[in-house]
Amino acid sequence: MRRWREFAVTAALLSGATPAFAVEGGSGAYLLGTRDLLAGVVPPPGEYVNLDVIHIQGNVEKLPISGVALTNAEIEAWIAKAGVTFVSPRPLMSGRAALNVQVPFASVNMDFTGVLGGLIAGTLSDAKIGMADPTVTPMLGWDSGSWHWNVSMPVYVPIGYYDTATIKLGRPPDVSVVSLGKNKWAFDPTFAWTWLDPKIGFEFSGAVGLTLSTMNEATDYQTAPELHVELTAGQHFKNGAALGLTGYYYQQISNDSGNGAEKIQKVLDIESLQARVFGVGPVLDWSTEIGTIPVTLEAKYLHELGAKRRFESDIIWGSVTFVFK
Q1: 46: left (phi over 0), alpha (psi -120 to 50) or beta
Q2: Structural domain that includes position 186
Q3: Residue 295's CATH number
């Protein structure tokens, strides 16, 4: 059982970054479903390298994005993330300190059928490829018997590609509505925990975070705080495999604000821009070695439901983490 505790580190290390198809834009800064098995564990001292590939396909009836309101938007995104984590050998506050950096690249295609409040109708499309906003996450974790927990502060750095929306009629029409960055800073204080029985290999993990964003000055749009709660139950096996069921709940705790948000709310003719979504699906880990290098592979599928004011998506996620000590 000690082997997976050292090697199955993917969930404990990663803090998600995602392209800004935004809650202004249909999703939050935090990539829902990031924390699953061993969410509360900060791994042993060493250096960790992760590679993730994520496919997202979703739709939403009405979407505020980059200053306009689109109707019947459908999105397909491929995200590739490269990350490194350093876990310090020196104790800090009787715990283990870690620093994680994630750099995402994305390919995003969006189709939509019109623009509310304008004269444009008919199916239009846009596609972008490039870097999204990187994430820097300091983390501090502790252990006590079967309990493991950590606190972290992911910081989303707004240097990914961003531009306000432009739609010009013509043959062909000139459409630019997709941005890969969010044009705003975001901070995500998070508490995560894991209870694990080393004798039977059963675990129950969870994480609670609150994403706080600065204003998008380009659209005068202030995204309200976003609460996300993730829970996972899993079983670890002696051969290094682990199988679990993971899920999440996302809810904005107040209404978006700013002149941009007020205009969008008026165009959409709705009482609130508050977003919500649920997600659930299986997750599979396998810890092994390539030569002398410990490796963890992870695959998961997440189905979203009950979405309100944001994309409802199906997500397929694969990752590999290498351990260097």
Answers
A1: left
A2: 2-324
A3: 2.40.128.130
**Count of alpha carbons within 13 angstroms of residue 325, beta-carbon side:** 11
Q: Is the pLDDT assigned to residue 2 strictly greater than 50?
A: no
Q: How far, rounded to the nearest angstrom, does the alpha carbon of residue 146 sit from its chain's CA centroid?
A: 28
Element (H, E) at 324: strand 312-324
Question: What would the mean pLDDT of 281-296 be, rounded to a whole number?
Answer: 95
pLDDT digits (tens, 9 = 90+) for 4-32: 444 444 333 433 444 433 345 667 789 99
Q: How many independent structural domains does the chain possess?
A: 1
Whose CA is closest to 15, among 140, 132, 149, 155? Answer: 155
Cβ atoms of residues 287 and 8 within 8 Å = yes
**How does 39-48 read in b/e, with b if 16+ C-beta sit within 10 Å?**
bbbbbeebeb
Match 């829902």 to its residue by tokens. Answer: 32
pLDDT for res 190: 98
CA distances to 34, 185, 193, 214, 249 from 208, in Å: 12, 20, 9, 20, 10
d(CA 276, CA 227): 9
Residue 93, C-beta contacts closer than 8 angstroms, at least 6 positions apart: 140
Percent of the chain residues past pLDDT 90, beyond the cut:
70
